[in-house]
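Form 7-S
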Amino acid sequence: MKIRSIALGLDIDWPLPLDRIARACAVLQAAARRFADAGFEVQTTRLVTQPFAEIGSHDAAGWVLPMARELDAACLDGGVEFVSVGPVRWSRLPAARAREYARAIPDVIMGTAHVSASIETAAEGRVFGAAARAGGEIVARLARETALGFGNFRFCTTAECPPNIPFFPAAYHGGGVPRLTIGLETADVVRQAFDGPGTLDDLERRLRESFGEKLGAIEAIARALCAEQHVEYGGTDLTPAPFPTDGASAAGMLEDLGVAAFGAAGTLSAAAAFTGMLKRLPFERVGYSGLMLPVLEDSVLAARTTDMALTWSELLLYSAVCGTGLDTVPLPGDAAPAELAALMLDVASLAATLRKPLSCRLFPVPGKRAGDLTEYDFPYFANAQVLSLAGRTSPRLFERFGA
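Output:
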């Protein structure tokens, strides 16, 4: 069982409280050592701040890029390579201020090496069309202005997402005492538990046995460390994050469960059954704690975009019974901002209706059309077929939403 993320939430100010940031980095490094000494592979440590647009009472967003650059450098000095400054929240800000801070996000991502940010498109059952439209413009700009559109790795829109999710780019700190959370990479553990015959009850029993001892150890270590470091333990996100090898594939988990091939009839039922198993695990959970289906981060799922001709709408359908929304979905490089925004609006509406956390991370691939194969040379990506969009925008719909 691997630990994908140890995340620490921290309130910051501008100018930055560099002493508190250095201490937070030291806590994260201590946590990484503690888990490594116990035999757990720790892939990343991450610092998470409160939503950046809600820091102080600044009249304009000109301070944001200098803050992000200084924060990026301070965390790198402290041995922490992943930083999230949280979402712009239309639910908490005047519309004009939200739009201004949303426009700052591409410069933050292009002007730093490790900083992630997001936009909230739904909260407490309300959907914000203007936020989705801003998100579409950001994704299109990052696709145009970063190599291979890779800036979109550090941006997403979020819907009904609570604080303390340890997975990026959706992460943000809810304020108050520093809070430590854990994100897992356990698709390989699930595949081993699902190997062999048995009913759903048998698979759930094996899953509980496989997770139980190791998750209990992770939780005990985290609680002891938090007590020593005077931070709060926020829980573990039980989502079995995949890795782009077949043995650590989330789509492969569902095929082990019984689906002939991911995307075939029955995929929704398998996703729902597995999510139910996760929800019944007796541990303190946080974040999504569901099934994660990131197309470019899952080798089996990436392969199914070719042989099963998956669509983004099918992936969104599966999110109705699991999570985490649309994630690292490869799309045509010339996708219009308004069409990208409409996808984000669909994710937001699903999340608001079901009151469940979903996010939307889209990857328009420069120079690629629907049906082309991506050509990423990145150890955390598997190459997939670019999914089709209808090539139509819905301006009247956004007028109805007030965007």
